[in-house]
Amino acid sequence: MSKKNIKHSWAEPYKIKMVEPIKMTTREFREKAAKEAGYNTFLLKSEDVYIDLLTDSGTNAMSDYQWAGLMLGDEAYAGSRNFYYLWDNVKKYYGMPYFVPTHQGRAAEHMISKIMIKPGDYIPGNMYFTTTRVHQELAGGTFVDVIIDEAHDAQNEHPFKGNIDPQKLEDLIKKVGPEKIPYVSMAGPVNMAGGQPFSMENLKTIYKLTQKYGVKLWFDATRATENAYFIQQKEKGYSNKTVAQILKEICSYFDGIWVSAKKDLLVNIGGFLATRNKKVYEEARNMVVIYEGLHSYGGLAGRDMEAMARGIEEMVKPENISMRVRQVEYCGVQLEKYNIPLVKPYGGHAIFLDAKRFLQHMKQDLFPAQSLAAEIYIDSGVRGMERGLVSSGRDPKTGKQRYPKLELVRLTFPRRVYTQSHIDVMVESIAEVYEHRKKIKGLKMVYEPKYLRFFQARFVKL
Questions:
Q1: Which residue among the candidates 216, 387, 410, 416 is catalytic per the annotation?
Q2: Distance CA 255, CA 288 (A)
Q3: Given 130, 132, 142, 225, which residue is catalytic?
Q4: What pLDDT does 2 receive?
Q5: What is the mean pLDDT of the segment spanning 277-296?
Q6: What does each C-alpha distance from 436 to 288, 309, 336, 358, 384 come to in angstroms?
Q7: Cα–Cα 20 to 30 A to 445, which of 50, 68, 240, 315?
Q8: Catalytic status, residue 129
Q9: Is 394 a catalytic residue?
Q10: Contact status, residue 459 vs residue 367, Cβ threshold 8 Å
Q11: CATH numbers and ranges of domains, the chain
């Protein structure tokens, strides 16, 4: 047999050194646990979850290199050597000269919003993210979605559904005036669209447009290495460049970035704000002392900053990022064998089930994505999360429900945690739920917190 006819399988680029036992439960147990949690997967006890795909935020497995670094934590209150090591790597890999650490990404979002947004401002972006938008709104701003239309269509296979529509953006600038737009907020890949990346070509176009009108461009770089990887794999002219090179080029077009280190950096806690704008840096360095801690630790222990610095070095390694995305791809391919409705193309950090097509018999007011996430847990102990009507929340001015076009269940893969066998178990469970999907009747919300309701809302079955 010729070599070209041999199929070469892939395996995780690591071996297991330590294990964490997980609990097997019965369906009866899970039905009770789901009811007690108000059918909100965020309110389940982690010990009652078999395979936890709720999020990749802080749930990653650190390497021996990172664990070894924890022992080198300099816990001095000011001027920790770990802070300077982390700052050096932010400069090296993101290309940003100024840096302020925070305890996690939303703290950086909070500071940027308070520093840059005035009441009455508009913040255009390539689809909202929950915590980003609420910080913008609390600062008196209004988020405006300027993503391309394809992003709102789960079945559209555009390779860069995270792109900003230049015409939508320019129309907004002309309508409200550039002085009313403190910055354009660009994320990549776009979480709420199904983990969809933007292209370098689109970024360059948006950069030129913002330069034309004197508007700043800021980047949610939380999963930027995934976006860089997709550019490498899909965009002409980038196949011979490394992920590290592409990441640095991406960041070169932005005035600044904020990062939840709990994703790309492969750690359990941490975040930061980085910028080339010295004025913003000085304000953030002053503000972090009020909200987070001294500017040289930002709410983090020295050991955490050491792990972050080492995580930056590991996140761009080809074997790590390719395995990361290919694991998601493997899951998507297996689910499609059962005709499970998914967001296409597959995302970089998660598979997103299309709950509208999965539960076609159910109206959106009955929270199909929330219902589906609960049913998957009940079936197998697999925990995903809702990304639809509950996450979208209410308009802060009118109090009315915001109805998103996408009603999704996100199954998010922590980095270096699960194997293909875990994925196979999860796929079989979803196929089982899909076969009996017409039995799912929906949910009624009985408790709704004021902000970010998807974290704490409670439901009852209909």
A1: 387
A2: 19
A3: 130
A4: 47
A5: 96
A6: 51, 47, 17, 11, 18
A7: 50
A8: yes
A9: no
A10: yes
A11: 10-56+318-461 (3.90.1150.10), 64-315 (3.40.640.10)
